[in-house]
Structure formats: structure tokens, C-alpha cells
Write a structure and sequence with these properties.
6 helices; globular
């Protein structure tokens, strides 16, 4: 049975300039492979053989590299827009999403088990399930718990915590989505996934979390991209290595 995934690959990647002025963010290299190449391979291994790439910024280069997906062992189609739709609006615009599917940002580097996420979503009956990750944010200062103002100029300290760590559960930018969730998005509406999640919760639709504590890097953040380069090898063309991925050199002349 075919499984479908939608990869949101249209972001401009402004936080990673100047690289993303010539390459779309999903084509940025990590080691000897593009981020999107790694994602497609992982999805194929997990049984997702129908993949839609929602593209916008420098879409022509993505199409040149991935074509119809045959070289990657999957079927790839494209959903393209000339105007911003938001991440949820981009999902609404994809035709044929009639069964549960995986939706994800195209700049995620992770070893998440997509099959396990998908099966957990099916078993839950959720409208949408969010792959989640625990992040620890260190605070470099002593944190005060301050009580009510005293009679003099000082304020009483109730507690003191030296350089605490704050723990958050955050969205990984990867979702399992049931088609009914898309009915909460208007046709042509500009909407992002966080806003869709708020609508689903307000409407009483079940939204779940699939916790995962393994590798997860958001390549859209420069510090995560630098960590990925350290882990998977130098970025081709930047540290003296030969460029392994050069879609521009194979792009047809404009006009």
C-alpha cells in the first residue's frame, strides 16, 4: 500500500545567507549529500513512495535535481505557488491527500523512525500528531523568584537558582496528518501549521505528540547547520572539497 509524504521545500532560508541566494535551502549540502536527498531516502526506506515537494523559492533547481523521483526510487510530484501560502496553506493546495500522510519541513536532519510515527498516528485516531523533541536551554545567570514588594526599597527574594536549565518539549517540524485536519483550512487561505494546530484544538479535534529524543537538527538555524557539517563532514565547496552537488551547472539557460 502506498504511503504519501509532503515535504515543505519552499522556504527562502534567509537565516543561512548567502548560500541560499543561489541554492534553495533543501539543496544545501550536508557532507556529500543535499539535505533533501537525505530526507527522501529516509522516507523511501520507511515505505513512503509517493512524495510531493511543495516548492517556491528557486523551485526550478529542486526540479532539476529530483525530477520525477525515479532515480531515488519514489514518485515525486510538485506543488508550486507564485505567492506565499503558509505551511498549512501549502498542504491544503496539494491535490489527492485522501489518506493520512507525513508532512514535514524540508530542512530537518533527523534519524526519526517515520514508520513508527505514522503507525502511532493511525492507532491514535488523532487529526494531527506532532513529532516532538526535548530541548534544554541553559540560563547563564542566577534566576530569582521575587516576592511581593516590601515596605522599603527592596523586594524579598523567595528562591534563587544559579544557572538553571529550562526544559521544553518542542515541535520537530514533522507531522502525521489525517485528511480531516485540512478541512479546517480555507481554500486559498494563508495559514501556518501552528495556527492550524490551534484551530484543531479549539474545535475539539485530537492532536497528539510523538516524543523522540534522538538526532534532530533544524538546518534553518545556522548553529544546527554548522553542527550537521561537523557531524557529517565539511560542506562541499566551502572547505576545499570538490562540489558534490551543483544543480546550477546543469540548469537550462533562462529564456
Amino acid at each position: 500500500m502506498s504511503r504519501t509524504a509532503v515535504i515543505l521545500a519552499g522556504g527562502k532560508g534567509s537565516r543561512l545567507g548567502p548560500y541560499t541566494t543561489v541554492l534553495p535551502k533543501p539543496l544545501l549540502p550536508v557532507g556529500d549529500r543535499a539535505i533533501l536527498d537525505r530526507i527522501v531516502t529516509q522516507l523511501r526506506t520507511a515505505g513512503f513512495d509517493e512524495i510531493t515537494l511543495a516548492v517556491d523559492h528557486l523551485a526550478r533547481l529542486v526540479k532539476i535535481v529530483f525530477g520525477d523521483g525515479s532515480e531515488h526510487g519514489v514518485r515525486i510530484r510538485y506543488s508550486e505557488s507564485d505567492s506565499p501560502r503558509g505551511t498549512a496553506g501549502a498542504l491544503k493546495a496539494v491535490a489527492g491527500l485522501e489518506s493520512p500522510f507525513i508532512a514535514m519541513n524540508g530542512d530537518i536532519l533527523t534519524d526519526l523512525d517515520y514508520d513508527a510515527l505514522y503507525e502511532a498516528h493511525l492507532a491514535s485516531g488523532n487529526a494531527l500528531t506532532i513529532a516532538s523533541h526535548r530541548r534544554v536551554v541553559p540560563v547563564d545567570y542566577g534566576v530569582l523568584s521575587v516576592g511581593a514588594g516590601g515596605a522599603d526599597a527592596t523586594t524579598p527574594i523567595v528562591d534563587y537558582d544559579e544557572k538553571p536549565e529550562i526544559r521544553y518539549t518542542v515541535s520537530m517540524g514533522i507531522y502525521a496528518v489525517s485528511p480531516r485536519a485540512l478541512s479546517h483550512i480555507g481554500t486559498g487561505e494563508v495559514l501556518d501549521v501552528p495556527e492550524l494546530i490551534e484551530r484543531l484544538i479549539a474545535a475539539g479535534e485530537p492532536v497528539g505528540s510523538f516524543p523522540y529524543d534522538g538526532l534532530w537538527l533544524d538546518i534553518g538555524r545556522s548553529e544546527d547547520y554548522e553542527r550537521a557539517i561537523d557531524e557529517y563532514g565539511p560542506q562541499p565547496g566551502v572547505h576545499g572539497e570538490a562540489v558534490a552537488l551543483d544543480p546550477i551547472a546543469h540548469a537550462p539557460a533562462s529564456g
